[in-house]
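Fold this sequence, please.
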Amino acid sequence: MVAAVQDSENMAAARLAAGPEAQVIDADDIAVRLVVQSHRQTGLSTVCADLLDFAGNEIYMRPEPSLVGRTYGETLNAYERGIPIGLRSASAGVTVNPPMETPVNAGDEIIVIAEDDLLIQLATTPPHIAEEAIISEPGVRPAPDRTLLIGWNSRAPKIIDLLDRWVAPGSSVDIAAPLEPAETALGRRANLTVGYKPCVPTSRRSLEGLQLGGYQHIVVLSDESVDADHADDRTLVTLLHLRDIEVRLGDPYSIVTEMNDDSNREVAQVTKADDFIVSNKLISLLLTQLVENPHLQAVFADLFDPDGSEIYLRPADDYVKPGTEVNFATVIEAARRRQETAIGYRLKHLHDEPTSYGVVLNPSKTGPLTFSPDDSVIIVAQS
């Protein structure tokens, strides 16, 4: 049995009632993590939907006796079709993106992203690696930034607390809402300073008064005081104003928003928001996956945990030279040298194209690729 609980406070009671054989998912907690991770990794919801949707790529666990004795890093380019993201062993359980030198032991299973388990094939010859295209310099450490949180709902305090764990020290977030939240939500935290600005989210004049040009990221929260459809309507109005103000300012910022109904996402694409978090859809897909394979709970728990390995979308030119033709095997090798697992890429010029929105997971390792500076590589890595 698999179940989802909407209120995190009910998790303990739900687990007690369900018993040891059932899996209980904290839907509210996952929604919060998706919003916070997408705040910096726009496109994450599309990556997660692809991994969870049976129509796209999925996560499989399979023994591979021929790879016993090799290291995890050596398995990354060992498949013709499919990309490893971790190991599952009887002793250590599930480990996502383990250290590259971790050996594959007898009885271990490789955790692989693939379109179908029947399509997972080992390569007969190693792919070509374009050494001259690999960028070897370490990435730039994250700098403090400013985030604007528009609206307020029951998830907002958790979003702020989790955001504090992810951002660089010296960062700030301003809450823009009609009513000032409780004093406990404001003030200084370990890495984050939280402030408040009065705002009516659907008012153009009110939004312009926030001086949006000074923010790098904007998160729009769904209004819980009205029904789901009405809330999505209000969100759409806010997004339209935000994007038009950005055009007039000429000072770009990313926009991530919550949506209640996935059918509204395509309508909202006109706003050119960077990411739409439709948590109800993703939770439904996750429950279905766990019914098929209960062991996947440990994989997704690791991916959504800030203390584990998460999914990131990082600039492609951190890994390979922009404008240089490479293959994805070269991208995988560039990421491996940083103790990261590359699983795909996102193309900037396709950000607004349903249904993939520029995201390509588990691409061919040998086909030609040429990235622009605006494209991203999708990786699994420690923060």
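The domain at 139-277 is CATH 3.40.50.720 (Rossmann fold). The CA atoms of residues 324 and 355 lie 27 Å apart.
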